[in-house]
Amino acid sequence: MTVRASDNDRERTLAALREHTAAGRLTLDEFAERASTVYAARTLSELATTTADLPEAEQHSDPRQLAVILAIALAVVAVLGVLYWLLT
């Protein structure tokens, strides 16, 4: 079963191609060629062909996830500080 691509899917693919172009993995001509393929793509598999030979984009961590990690680290440091204070 083929799944049709949405405008949002196309924009995400174009953003990935822009990042790869900025990183020097694609020339401007290659970007232009792939961008025209993205705009003409009707299915997700057609979109996937434009990025198949490129590495996965770096995952940017969720700011909320980072906040939770920092809160846990702060709590651990606070508990260790209180324990040190009680034992001395």
From TrEMBL:
Pfam families, A to Z: DUF1707 (PF08044)
Domain DUF1707: start-end pairs: 3-55
Domain of life: Bacteria
Membrane spanning residue stretches: 66-87
Keywords, sorted A to Z: Membrane, Transmembrane, Transmembrane helix
The UniProt record lists the keyword Coiled coil: no
Protein name (Swiss-Prot/TrEMBL): DUF1707 domain-containing protein
Species assigned in the record: Virgisporangium ochraceum
